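[Solved] Which block belongs to which protein?

Original post:
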Amino acid sequence: MLIELFCEKFGSCNSKANPIRFGENLNVIRGGEEGDNSVGKSTFMQILDFTFGGEAFEKNELKNTLGDVTIFFAFKFEDSIYRFSRSIENSSKVSEYSDVYVTAKEVSIIEFRNFLLIKYRLGTHAKDFRSLVGCLTKMVTDVDPFADPLRSVQVESEEDGIIHFLKLFGEYKPLEEMKRTNDSNNKSKSAYDAAAKKNFVVKATKKEQKSLSKEIESLQEELDDIESGFLSSLYAEKIDATTDLKYSLDSLFLIRAKMKSELKILKKNAMDGVNANKSDYSELLQFFPGVNIRNIEEVDRFHEGLKEVLKAEIDEEIQDVKTKLALINEAISCEKEKVEKVERLSRIEPLVLKKYADIKSSLDAKQSAKKQIDEILQLKETCKRFESKYNERLLEIVKPLVETVNAEIAVMNDTFEILKGSPSPVLTVKSSKKYDFKTPGDDGSGTRSKGILLFHLAMLKLSSAPFLIHDTFDLNQAQHTTIAGLVKLGNASTKQVFLAIDKIASIADNEFKRIIDEKTVLKLDFNHKLFAGT
């Protein structure tokens, strides 16, 4: 808890020897009986928030006259004391002291918030600390501080506030993964919607989807008509011919060349028979006088007869090759006719082919557009279904928590006689993105102030919320008896409550006055301002 605070520029409590000291429950910052403005009550509430890692004090106009302001403060957790300082000019850094405000090291504001998050046992993610405690820190400088009890700042959505509520009760974990998926789906859908708004992509509507389906069907019928007529015969024939022609002709030319070569060899063999005669053997007799020439001539005559038989066979084979060559030449002529036919077709088909190409291009474009629309509509449907599932699960988890808080508010409302019988404010979570908080039958500013303080006191008691900071505006519109009751409830808290309050002399309640006297940690009025010389 926060145990002390001082600033060297304060009018009082301006040194480490004389700091403002805080108690473990109610701490009252008391203003004058005239409700004096510009004495520093609201600024001090901003400073309190500043010590918890807040940013409101950085925007305070006093820095224009005071220059840089450094706030020194200390926390106590269990039996250990941790001392720090933080300045307006260097608010993104926090000085952490190892002794009594002498020796320090710098840490980032993120590290400091993470320290508080861990010490207050709120989790492990520094980015969550301010969002969690921010809804319990209400400043007079807020746009409408008691309009939304769950939102940390005005720029947050009601959905953010509901998530803070669940986290403070430790019940957000079951929804965390669903929320990531839901956010991812919605991010994709939002990106498309933004692109469609700028006409970068087609607008995905069921009407456009239906219209495109009809156009695609019509274009497809036109293509079918062309393909079943002109293209299915002549154009298809052209495609086949141009695809197979080169291979077919090359094959035929190769076969013909081979057959011509074979025919040439056969003709040569048919003409190569050489006849021997007796004079050819005269030289043989010179070297071999005893040889039997007659026997040799008989063998030669046998060979001559054999040669006649072989010649007849060669002639027959030559005729066979010539027949085959004739067939090959006929096949080549046929292929050449196909080429001529394709060439004639090419001279008459361009207009038809252009029309076919134009229709096909248009069809492809519309099919692509329809596919995109189908995907986007499917995404939207997925988003809708998943969001409904997420919403259903969230309401299932948040309902008993809301009932518990509302019941505690009702108990607090009736604990003291001065509050008993007055309407009790009610929180209603309608969906994952919408909630209401109001007192039935009474929407006055005093009632709303009372309601939001009751709500936060109930949250402080039931959840892991570590402290509560409420500026004067929460109370100055309420009835005196109501103010007394609320202060007593704050005093009964087991956690730190910081309340700014003024104009209390007319409240005739002795217990209330005793509490104020005991719990006032700082008293400010026109003669005792927060900052000296202001």
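(Second protein starts here: sequence line, then its structure tokens.)
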Amino acid sequence: MKTNIFKPLAYVSISGLFLTSCSDFLDTEQRGVIQIDDFYHTDQEVTEALYAIYDKVQSEALTTFQFKNLLSDDAYAGGGGRGDNNTGEELNEFRFGPNNSLISTMFEKYYKIIYTSNILMDRVEVDSEVKRLAVAEAKAFRAYAYFELVTLWGPVPLVTRPLESDEYAQPNATVAEIWARIEQDLQEAIPELPLKSQLSAAKKGHVSKGTAQSWLGKAYLFQEKYAEAADLFDQVIQSGEYGLYPDFAMITREESEFGIESVFEVSYAAELSMITEGTQIVAYCGPRTGYFKSGTTGISETAWGWVNPRPELYEAFVTAGDEVRRRGTVISEQDLMNEYGGSFRDADGNLPYGSEGHVRMKYGAYVAETPGEDYHTISGTNYRLLRYADVLLMAAEANNRKASPDDAKALRYLNEVRARVNQPALSVTGNDLFAAIKQERRLELAFEWVRYQDLIRWGDAATVLADQGKQIPRGDGSYFELSDAGFKERHWLLPFPETEVNVNPNIVQNPGW
């Protein structure tokens, strides 16, 4: 099994939006503790501080996997029965409120990334190459975290330095201010960062120039600054640093980690000695134990079934005639029986709750990538936060949507992605090309945390997600009927967590919450 690039660091911070510290209350000197003023001086100390940021990016693996996947139309929130994953059900059915724990956990995760980044940038005096690179990576990660916050919550508080105790209750920033900071951080980071090919083997999981350029291009795209986005993506594409991995079925598997298609991925480890550095997607999000017989799929039979593919996703592949990506993303109960010799029903002939018999192959719970069935809670599957295929499709969209469209270039990028999975080249232009790019993103990037934000930024969420959650399969052929489910006007922005609003009198809750 692989080992984790980023070793855990004993770095203490308090979770929440504005992280506080305790006052000294004993006169006795505490042993074994380094004072903050005595740290951040040597290259080794700064490297450890940098890895504290990576540790926050890596954290909350299970919640991260569920969060945006369940908000999208890719998945059902399943489990052993109604209420087994109640917070996931709330998200998936758009019945959540400010007290939903998945929302608060992810909100806190992004601010922990910001907090550790701010500390490093504030404390480090750049007098070596190691420190220069660390500051650049911290800026890139702060931009990444604010991108997630502004696209999901909108006008969040903007914190760009460690705060004094009387500054913790920060007000909402404007969306324009947040985007400006994202752009500035990435623009400053890009010239300082190395190309992917210049990273040593020990640092292959670090942020590269191409990562920061792609994140900045994505920030421009989400603001509809299409010309600027197209220019950035073109730079990444023309760098020659990236390509498409030849086997689509393996793009989220261990064999392709940090490969030619990886623009940035989060590293996890499956060794039993590093349980906290693995993910829990095998145990919680694979097909439900007691129903699933894997046949020759290689997928674990010991899981809880919390994230199950929706039949609409499967049908999207069938309608498109996209056999390669279908087999690498989701299979049906019939496919499981006919092609793999497996099954997905209990002794009474029922499917699991929250499932219509479909099995996720992308980010599947593969036995070969865990320490064994006795330890199925541990998986070392890396999360691909950004693949080159995504860059190509964003570049296609930017070139198609800019004021002076370059549909020839957009088609070239789109068809490069399609050729990898044996799909015929398209020749459409204008709005028809834009529609084709939207469809391609769904098929290429299912279960990769982009679908929900795509639907929001395109303005399609209210239509596509209007009825989501109104019918939930029980597994016996009947459905739970939930008339209050589905996307509503207030869902264009997520609510600020109740825990944050309660302690910060200066934050204004988003409309409708």
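Accepted answer:
You had them paired correctly. Confirming on the second one: The mean pLDDT is 91.
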